[in-house]
Amino acid sequence: MNTIILDFEHFSMKQLTCKTVMQQMFEVVKIKTGYYPMESRRIFAINAPKLSFQLMFTMVKPFVPECVLGTIKVFGGNKAEWNAALLEEIDADQLLAFYGGTMTDPDGDPKCPSKFNMGGEVPQTYYQKNSAPVPKDNMETVNIIAAGAGGRKKLKLNVTIARSVLRWEFMTEGGDIRFRVYIKKSKGNVVDVIPLDRVDSHLAMEEDQFTCDEPGKYVFEFDNTFSYLRIKKLHYYIYFDPPL
Predict the structure, then answer these.
(1) How confident is the model over 59-101, as pLDDT tens digits?
(2) 3-class SS at 135?
(3) What are the start-end ranges of the H helices in the chain?
(4) Cα–Cα dist 184/107, whole Å
(5) Quick one: the chain helix, strand, coil %, rounded to 5?
(6) Residue 168: phi, psi to the nearest 5?
């Protein structure tokens, strides 16, 4: 069994509650609780900002089993408090000097970079927003207004041969978009191919494909109704290839 230390120092309210961080947090929780629920003896969250961490933890908590919740200890910025708790669980020679133990690198570095990758702030050169996708020449373009009934755009493609491969690529300008693909059945019933979800298509070109088990009318839905002010410009290319 292992002991995990999550250090939230320098995390702001904006960072902890942004969509990307929340998605990654839910993914980590899903993997850990689904496959390794008893792997950790103790999980320490230290330097946790009171309001933002409480908000995030409240959202994640319902998805965490009781057996895992019992291993979690949360501490704010009081170093003496969490340092004492860490040393109750971890021998001093196994705890970084940076966190109050005695372990250092041979050169005396208290963070022991030769043994641990402490991470840090991501350089702005890696920010996806600094390298936004560029629409391709073969793409169609349409503006999707904010909110209201007009905040949805539906594109229909009639697939006539089973096992055809449905392909799409799209990007947006002005922010992310909600995206869904479904097939229209008889009597107005629909079956999701890709469930509705928000896609960061303003940061990277969204590209995917799906093999159609049956012919039919497939509908691509782009939904901007969650945005009250921002119009999104959608660039897209959708087609299908018949089976070989």
Answers:
(1) 888 888 888 888 899 999 999 999 999 999 999 999 999 999 9
(2) coil
(3) 13-16, 19-35, 50-60, 66-69, 79-89
(4) 66
(5) 30, 35, 40
(6) -150, 155
